[in-house]
Specification:
The chain is mostly helical. The protein has one domain (5-65). The protein has two helices and no strands. It has helices spanning 5-30, 32-65. Helix 1 packs antiparallel against helix 2. It is elongated.
């Protein structure tokens, strides 16, 4: 399972979501009008990345349930 390329891609996507989330939260702490705009933009990117990660996870689970190795 750990050598499955789709699993690795889904794990990288999840880590990408985590990085974007941490950057967005970090921008919240800085304050200011510019920080709020950057933080909102990062959170929007996080939603897109999270949707992609969830889609990859669902695809991985679906292919594994169909018997694909």
């Amino acid at each position: 399972m750990l050598s499955d390329p789709l699993f690795i891609l889904a794990a990288i996507a999840c880590l990408g979501v985590l990085v974007i989330l941490m950057l967005g939260i970090g921008n919240f702490g800085r304050g200011g009008a510019g920080g709020a705009k950057r933080s909102n933009k990062l959170m929007r990117y996080r939603i897109y990345a999270q949707a992609g990660a969830v889609a990859l996870i669902i695809l991985f689970v679906w292919l594994r349930s169909m018997g694909a190795q």
